[in-house]
Structure formats: C-alpha cells, structure tokens
Design a protein that fits this description.
Protein name: Putative flippase GtrA (Transmembrane translocase of bactoprenol-linked glucose)
Number of helices: 6
Number of domains: 2
Organism: Actinacidiphila rubida
Pfam families: GtrA_DPMS_TM (PF04138)
Keywords: Membrane, Transmembrane, Transmembrane helix
Shape: elongated
Subcellular location: Membrane
Order of helices and strands: HHHHHH
Helix content: 55-70%
Largest sheet: none
Structural class: mainly alpha
Number of strands: 0
Strand content: under 5%
Length: 191
C-alpha cells in the first residue's frame, strides 16, 4: 500500500475496531448493570460485592463477544494464554471499576440505588479505557498481515551493493536513483 493510502487505511481499521469494541462493550455494560441490580435486589448483597459478581458475569460475556466478533481476525495461537491474559487484565479492570464504586459508597456515603448505578457506570467508563488498551495490545494481538497486491509492488530496501543504494552520503534511495557514475550496465561488466 502506498504511503498516501496507508494512514487512512490504518485509521479505518482502527475506527472499525473501536466500533466493534464499543458494541461488545455496550452489551457488557448492559449485562453488568442488569446483573448488578438483580443481585442487589433479589439476593440482597452489599453494593460492592454485588458489583464484583456482576462484573465477573459481564467479563465472561465480553470474552465471547471480543473473541468471536471484535477480534475474530486476531491471533488465536494459544487459547490458554489468551484466556489467562484476558482474565488477568479483566481483573485489573474489575479493581479499577469497583474502586470508584467503593470510594463513592464507603468514602462519600453515597449508597442509594441511583447513586450506586451512576458510580458503577462511571467506574465501568474509567476501566474501559484500560481494557481497550490491554486487550488490543496484549490479549488479541494483530496477525502478521499478508501483503496485498499494491504492497507487493512497492520497492523494499535496496541492498548496499546494488546500484543506487545509499553509499553513506544519504542522497541515494530506492525512489531516487544514484548519480549516473554509480550506475552500470551488463555491457560494462564484460569490458
């Protein structure tokens, strides 16, 4: 791919990744908040304990969405490694998310149903930035892409012995031929 088209293409892939991450993440937030409220209402667990359990439920749902939708084209070499990293980073996200709720509930004394949901949502938002970075960087790594047709026709680095190669002066490159005295022809070799 030419340099002129490489950046828009990369940005397009990045924006699609963000959109897919957002779809799965939004579904995870809905599962998280529904489970949080159901656990509090029907099981009577304390706010932060209910939040931790709801977060575990949403982590499982999110893994399925990320593995088979958002990052289905990413390296799936070792599922055991991927799962360990995913759940490890998800646990860090769980701590970030529930620290916000804990501070609001026990630090500020804001433990009403609406306040708990607002701070649960804020905690999810803060943890999402960390999760996006960690999942795309460590868990679902990009596969080495096969060169497309346009990239295959692009010249690569030129060997140092080839005509037009940089001789240390920094003026020659693959795109800009060297000075005429550096070029030779097959006829010159037989003289």
């Amino acid at each position: 791919m030419s340099g002129r088209h490489a950046l828009p293409s990369r940005l397009g892939h990045f924006y699609r990744e963000i959109a897919k991450f957002g779809v799965v993440g939004l579904a995870g937030v809905v599962v998280n908040l529904l489970a949080f409220n159901a656990i509090q209402r029907y099981w009577g667990l304390q706010t932060v304990r209910a939040s931790v359990l709801a977060t575990f439920i949403s982590i499982i749902c999110n893994y399925v969405g990320f593995r088979f939708f958002t990052y289905r084209d990413r390296d799936g070499g070792s599922r055991a490694r991927e799962l360990a990293l995913f759940f490890g980073f998800s646990l860090v996200g769980l701590v970030i998310e529930n620290s916000v709720l804990y501070a609001a509930t026990y630090g500020l004394g804001w433990d009403g149903r609406l306040q708990s949901n607002v701070f649960k949502f804020v905690g999810v938002g803060v943890a999402t930035a960390f999760r996006f970075w960690s999942y795309r960087t460590w868990v679902f790594k990009v596969l080495d892409e096969a060169p497309d047709e346009e990239a295959a026709t692009e010249p690569g680095p030129r060997p140092s012995w080839a005509p037009g190669a940089d001789d240390g002066g920094g003026t020659a490159s693959w795109f800009q031929p060297a000075a005429p005295h550096d070029e030779f022809t097959v006829a010159d070799q037989h003289r």
